[in-house]
Amino acid sequence: MGKNAVNSLDPKADLIFISGDITLEGILPEYELAKERIQGFEGLMMLVPGNHDARHLGFQLFREFFGRLEFYKEVEDIGIVGLDSSEPDRDEGHIGRDKYKWIEESLKNSKKFKIIGLHHHLVPVPNSGREQNIINDAGGVLDLVLRNDVALILMGHRHVPYAVRVHNTLIVNAGTFSSTRTRAHLGNSFNVIDIQDKSITVTAHDIEKGKEKVMVEFDKDKNIYINRYYSK
Ligand SMILES: [Fe+2]
Q: How far is the CA of 229 from the centre of ligand 1 (A)?
């Protein structure tokens, strides 16, 4: 159902980014199933591993099935850094200072619209339970993000759609696409992010209800930031 909702988007997605946790235990049959399901999506796809994917040597399988755990790629006007925030057999998120130089060089050399994608959250996410597993060097990574004019952060892990502006960066959390670990009435969902020159609109799509709701409209040149998703 979710796959059909994504494939029937009009216009079609230029890029489908999966922010990790495509398996539960990181084991071979789960990777085989994930590969099969992911092949059903139409469009360019990028993904990073989540904490579940790294379990039980799952990080090795991730490489076999999907390629590099971390990358810098350019697609049209977008430069995207994919980061592995997982630690094998732990739920905590971590990037690590040893990667900062590579991240910063990738960002500095890019004239593109800069995006960083990772699994764990960089800032607290409301409506997702008590705070835990935020990347343990979040301050250092946030500093990198803000100093290098990153326009967009894509993350997951917390299972609820959310977005917040921090200075000129929009930080966006994806809800859970297909797991049963939903929160209250926030069912399975995915975000559609529309990037137009200097403006970004994020719309959360509820898969079961077939409904969509604009979460954030952000235009940094006009200094417009509207977030109504959780407004009563
Ligand atoms: Fe996770």
A: 22
